[in-house]
C-alpha cells in the first residue's frame, strides 16, 4: 500500500510541475511589435537563459526614446504556458518586481512600456514567469 501512495504522489507532483509548460493560452503566431533602435538608445541588454525544463531564448533590451523607457523582447522564443508574464525584477526569482503584463506570444518581437521611475541598477532582470504555477521559464540579466 505504501508503494501505491508514493506512486500517486510522484505522478501528482510530476503533472503539477509540467502543467505550466503543457497548457498554453498563448498564440503561436509570432508577435510583430516594431523594435526601433535607430531613433532611441539601448540602455541595457541581456540574453535570455532557459530555466530548468523550459526553453527561453532571445534578447531583452531596455530602450529610451523621447524620455520614455520600454523593454523590448527581440527574437523571443519561449515554451508555452497558461499564464506567462513579463517581469522586471531585482532578482532571478520574482520577489520584488514590476509586472509588465501578459506575454503577447511565445515567439517574435514584443515591446512593453515601463514606468520612468525604475532604477535599472537594482531592477536588472527580465523574467518570463508562469504566474499560475509560480514557475520561472527564463531570465535575462540586463547589463
Beginning-to-end CA distance, first to last residue: 54 Å
- Rg over C-alpha atoms, rounded to the nearest angstrom: 17 Å
Give the SSE order as H and E letters.
HEEEEEEEEEE
Number of domains: 1
Helix fraction bin: 10-25%
Spatial arrangement of strands, main beta sheet: 1-8-5-4-2
Roughly what is the average pLDDT, rounded to an integer? Answer: 85
Q: From the coordinates shown, what is the CATH architecture?
A: Sandwich
**Low-pLDDT runs:** 6-19
Give the overall form. Answer: globular
Q: What is the gist of this entry?
A:
The protein is mainly beta. It has one helix and ten strands.
Explain what this protein looks like in three dimensions.
Helix content is 15%, strand content 45%. The chain has a 5-stranded mixed β-sheet with strand order 1-8-5-4-2, with no helix packed on it. Strands 3-10-9-6-7 form a 5-stranded antiparallel β-sheet, with no helix packed on it. About 10% of the residues have low confidence. With 143 residues, the chain is mainly beta. The chain is built from 1 helix and 10 strands; from the N terminus they run αββββββββββ. It has one domain: Immunoglobulin-like (Sandwich), CATH 2.60.40. The N and C termini lie far apart (54 Å).
Amino acid at each position: 500500500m505504501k508503494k501505491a501512495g508514493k506512486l500517486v504522489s510522484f505522478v501528482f507532483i510530476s503533472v503539477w510541475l509540467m502543467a505550466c509548460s503543457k497548457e498554453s493560452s498563448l498564440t503561436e503566431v509570432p508577435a510583430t511589435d516594431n523594435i526601433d533602435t535607430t531613433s532611441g538608445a539601448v540602455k541595457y541588454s541581456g540574453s535570455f537563459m532557459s530555466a530548468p525544463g523550459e526553453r527561453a531564448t532571445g534578447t531583452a533590451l531596455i530602450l529610451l526614446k523621447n524620455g520614455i523607457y520600454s523593454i523590448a523582447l527581440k527574437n523571443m522564443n519561449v515554451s508555452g504556458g497558461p499564464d506567462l508574464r513579463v517581469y522586471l525584477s531585482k532578482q532571478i526569482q520574482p520577489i520584488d518586481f514590476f509586472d509588465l503584463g501578459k506575454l503577447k506570444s511565445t515567439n517574435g518581437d514584443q515591446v512593453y512600456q515601463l514606468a520612468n521611475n525604475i532604477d535599472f541598477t537594482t531592477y536588472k532582470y527580465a523574467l518570463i514567469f508562469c504566474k499560475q504555477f509560480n514557475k520561472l521559464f527564463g531570465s535575462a540579466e540586463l547589463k
